[in-house]
Every structure is written in C-alpha cells, then in structure tokens.
Design goal:
By secondary structure, the chain is of the alpha/beta class. The chain is built from 13 helices and eleven strands. The protein folds into two domains: 44 residues; 271 residues, TIM Barrel. The N and C termini lie close together (9 Å). The protein has an eight-stranded parallel beta barrel, surrounded by five helices.
Length: 382
C-alpha cells in the first residue's frame, strides 16, 4: 500500500510539472549566442541560464570516438588551419546524407584525426559578428564528456531544481559509416550504454533528419525518445502516422517557418527580417493527432534582428512568445536560452495548459490529487 501511495504521489508531482504547460527551453549547441557553440563552456552556461535541454551535434573520429561537432569538416569552428602538424591533412570530399543532401568540401575532416589529435584543437565562435572573446580557449568535447556533464548535474540537482537533459542530433549516419567503417548509430548507442544512460529518457533524447538513422536509433535504443527533423514543406498526415505508428518515433523537430507560415519558400525556409508571418499553421495540431505526447520542437530562435521576422518587429521576445503561446510547440530551440527561459517563466507562471499531460489541465490534476488522497486514507486505515 505504501508503495502504491508513493507511486501516486510521484505521478502527481510529475503531472503537476507537465500540466504547467511550459515548453522546453532547448539550448542550441549550448548557449551558443554568447559562447563558442558545442563546448563544455557553452553547455555549462546554458544549464546555469535555465535550459531544460542541451542540444548538440555529433561526428566521428578516425579511432571511432564520437565527438561533439556540427559537421565533419573542422575549419568552420576550430583552429585546425593554424596547427602546423596538421597541414598535410587537407582533403577534398563529398559529404552526403540519406535525404539526398550532398556537398563538395575541401577541408580537414574528423574521420582523418584521432581523438587525441582533435583535443589539440581549439574552438571559435561560428558567427563572425558575435562575441569572439572566448575563442581559442575551449576544446572539442567527446560525446561521453557531454553525457558526464548532465549526469553530474542530475546527481547534484536538488528536488526542486530543474533537470537538464541532452538532445543529441545524429547526422550523416551513412557518410560517417562509409568513412570510418563503423556504424555511427552503434557507436552512439555504445557510448550511451557505457555511461549507463541508454535507459534514461529523463536525461537523453535523440534527433535526426535521416529516416533510416531514426529507425536504427529506435531499434538500438528503444527506451529513448527519438525525433524526426524536417525542414521541407509538406509533412503529410500519412508521414506523421508512419513515423509514429511504424517507426515508434516520439515527435518532430522542424524549421520555425513550417509552424509560423508566411512568405518564406517552404522548400528552402528562410526566416529573416523581410519575412511576414501568417500562421500558426496547422502542423502542431495535426502532429498532436498522433497523441499529446508526440512532441513538436522548433528551431532556431536567435536574438539578433537579422534572424527575426518583420512581423515580430525584430523582437526575439515576441518571436518566442508566438511559438510558445500561439503555436503551442513543445520545445523552443534557441541560441540564447536565458532569453527564452525568461519568456517561458513569465508566460507560464500560473498557466495550466495541456503540453505533456495525458488528459489536460486542472481537472485531471485535481482528479489525480483526489486519487492520491483516497489512497492515503486507505493507507491510514490499514
């Protein structure tokens, strides 16, 4: 009886948090607006700024180590060109993905470097007009280092504190498999298993653009949420049903233009100061027909006015407000988690919306409370 009561009370506490209707604040590459993205500094700062999740990308090294990097080519975010011992590693390659993306690149590639060599590099800010004062100070993390960070944060968390999770993007699966002769999905699953988090959906989520990769991740890691990323127009109801019913996926992550509607070309979504929003579209509503727990995440919210639609008066707060309260998405992927955290806390301080709750709102919460009270009375009578 005591165990039954405890389970009910824990369910009540969990439901209470979800019933508050707060969309997740997801730090895109960490707090990448203020610090070099995909570094331990950016992740730590994002957690301090109130992120619910730390989003990261993955690549693979020559010695089959999974590292945290946005692409296989190193020069966009590291100083590899300035390290004399690596001068002979410059190569031409064609990067490709399962979803018909190809790109010819001449650069230095992760699969041509060992993890020890990668650790000799230093990161820099990807976007030229952002603060560069932290350039040259941070290494490229391994995936296991990022996992260890969220495990440590979880172990130090007080009962009333927010849990911080990882949202791991698994990209270019066939490309890395071809270049390293090892399955990228299996390497990631091995790291998660080695760190004891392959059955921790509270702190590990996965996402990918590639359908074959999504299916393989769900096969290898059936207890972890997997989201299908999409940036082209035309996610049909049939696709949503296939992803949910056949592949058992847990949601979608989409370019914000797909939820906002308006004048951007949906097949090449651009969301700039010239963009006029007409939405929200019906995408969130249609996705929720797959079940309330089928999540919709949008990317990427940024504070700089060049990235914000004209409709929002180039105001990052107004943009985040639209997606959180009008479009009612489940997750806001942002370069500036501190901005979105303030917006979410302000808008949902006393709200009871239905995001994440199976039957929605205050009535269900009261019913669960009544059940807990009844069970408590039964316990006292025993």
């Amino acid at each position: 009886m005591a165990l039954r009561l405890l389970a009910l009370l824990l369910a009540l506490l969990s439901f209470s948090s979800e019933a508050a209707g707060r969309p997740w604040v997801i730090a895109h590459r960490g707090s990448s607006g203020d610090y070099p993205g995909l570094t331990m500094l950016a992740f730590t700062k994002a957690a301090e700024e109130g992120a619910d999740m730390l989003e990261l990308d993955t690549a693979v090294t020559k010695d089959h180590q999974v590292i945290v990097l946005h692409e296989p080519d190193l020069s966009p975010t590291t100083n590899v060109k300035d390290v004399p011992e690596f001068a002979g590693r410059l190569k031409a390659d064609t990067i490709f993905s399962d979803d018909n993306y190809t790109k010819n690149v001449t650069d230095y590639f992760t699969w041509d470097f060992s993890l020890d060599e990668i650790k000799k590099l230093r990161k820099h800010q990807r976007i030229s007009f952002r603060d560069s004062s932290f350039d040259g100070k941070e290494q490229v993390p391994s995936l296991r280092e990022a996992i260890q960070l969220v495990k440590r944060l979880d172990s130090e968390r007080q009962p009333d504190q927010r849990r911080v999770a990882l949202l791991i993007e698994v990209k270019l699966c066939r490309y890395f498999t071809a270049r390293t002769n090892r399955s990228k999905e299996e390497l990631i699953a091995a790291d998660l298993t080695a760190e004891g988090v392959d059955n921790r959906p509270d702190i590990i989520h996965l996402q990918t653009f590639e359908l074959q990769c999504a299916a393989e991740l769900k096969r290898l890691l059936p207890n972890l949420p997997v989201y299908k990323l999409e940036e082209s127009a035309g996610i049909s109801d049939e696709k949503l049903t296939q992803w949910r019913r056949d592949l058992k996926l847990d949601g979608i992550g989409v370019h914000k233009a797909m939820v906002a509607g308006g004048s951007a070309n949906p097949d090449s979504p651009e969301f700039t100061y010239k963009y006029r929003v007409t939405g929200p579209t019906d995408l969130v509503q249609r996705a929720k027909r797959q079940g309330e727990n089928f999540k919709v995440l949008v990317w990427t919210l940024r504070n700089e006015d060049r990235y914000i639609a004209w409709t929002f008066s180039q105001d990052g707060w107004a943009e985040a407000d639209f997606f959180a309260t009008e479009a009612k998405v489940d997750g806001l992927i942002t370069d500036f988690p501190k901005t979105v955290r303030r917006l979410v806390d302000d808008r949902f301080a006393s709200s009871g919306s239905k995001i994440g709750s199976p039957s929605g709102g205050l009535p269900a919460l009261l019913a669960l409370a009544a059940a807990a009270a009844a069970s408590w009375s039964s316990y006292l009578a025993v």
